[in-house]
Here is the input.
Amino acid sequence: MTMTYTGTTALITGASSGLGAEFARRFAARGSNLVLVARRADRLDDLAQQLRSEHGVTVTVLPMDLGRAGVGAELLKELAGRGLSIDTLINNAGFGTHGLLVEEDPAVIASEISLNVAALVDITRAFLPGLLASGKGALVNVASTAAFQPLPGMAVYGATKAFVLSFTEAVAHETKDSGLNVLALCPGATKTEFFDVVGSDSAAVGKMQTSAQVVETAMKALDRKVTPGSVVSGWMNRVGAAFAQRLPRAVTVAIAARALQDS
Here is the structure.
C-alpha cells in the first residue's frame, strides 16, 4: 500500500542536498507540505521553488544551524508562530569525520556529536507530542550501516549512528500503538556531499547507492502494514549488517578497520 500524505506537513532537516532533498521530493510528490531546514538558504530556496511548481504544495524554508542546545524548542516555537504543526519529522542533518581520534580536531568532533546526537534527540523530543497527536505521518531518523559495528578510523561517527539506531528503535517500541510510523534508516555509502565533508572517498565501503535508492527503501518501509523499527538500504549492506550482529565484536572491529583501510 502506498501511503499518501495530502494535507500533512513534513519537517526535513539537512534538506539542502542529498537524502534530505530526495525526501523532500518524495513527500511533496505524495501531497505533503514541507518545512525545509538547513544552513544554505540559496539551496533551500531553489528546491522549494521547484517543489511548489511541480507539486503545488506549500514549502516553508528555514535556514538554520541545528548544532546548538535548545534547537528543538526553538524550531517548535518558530513554526508555532507561523501557525504550522508537523505531522512527519525527517531527522537527516548530520556529518562525519575520518581519521584517528588522536588526530581529530576536538571542536569538530564536538560539533559532530552535537548535530548527529544531541540535536536529533532534542528535535525528536520537541516534536514527538505533536506527531503522536496527529498520527498521520512518520518519524524517520537517518542512521547508517556504521551503526552495526565499531568503526576504527571513524570512531565518533560510527558511535553517533549507533546511538541513533538504538534510540530510534526504542522510540519505535514506545510508540508502537500510537499510529505513528517510526523508522531508523540505515544507508551504506551513498552518492551525496557526505564524503566532501568527510574529506575523502576512502571512507566509502562497498558499492555506493544513490539518494533515490536509499529514500525508496525508506518509503517502502513506511508503506508496509507494520513499519519496522529500522531498515538497511541495499541487499549487500543488509548482509553485512547481519554478519556484524552475529560475529564476535573483536572480529567485526578488525573487519571494519581493514575495510576502511582498503577502501
User: Anything to note?
Assistant: The longest strand covers residues 33-38. The chain has a mean pLDDT of 93. The chain has one domain: 9-262. Residues 64 and 159 are 25 Å apart (CA to CA).
